[in-house]
Amino acid sequence: MTRYDSVPPRPSVQTRGPHPIWRGIGCLTMIIVPLIAFAISRALIDLALSSGWPVPTALLGSPGLPDWLRSVPVLYTLLAPVRTWTNLYAYLALAAILTLLIGGVMSFAYSVIYAMIGPPRWGPLDIPPPKGVKIKSYKR
Predict the structure, then answer these.
(1) In the chain, N or C: fewer CB atoms in 10 Å?
(2) Phi/psi of residue 79, each to 5°?
């Protein structure tokens, strides 16, 4: 007789993953959040420029294409309209910052909601930790 014979066998319950709709919502979030951040950054940069707020001058102006791109005519033709967009670097820099901020706020809100309405911490086969037991720190 072994030491672990008194433990009841675990039921063979297959754990199902999250509902497939959550994967779709996550995919849409990865697309929608940067688009919203880019739209907000365009509005903020345009407002900053019209109001006279200090904006780094290195980010302003039209972007340039590298010289080696002229040797690839298809890419040069496809990317030629990018040179006409003004302040693209400023828009992208602020959009990256806003994407991180929006994503962080959404993650925090999700974790708070999940903690409130999510599954319980202890499952049916878990034993909760003992209450009132103080463990002394190990010293050599």
Answers:
(1) C
(2) -95, 0
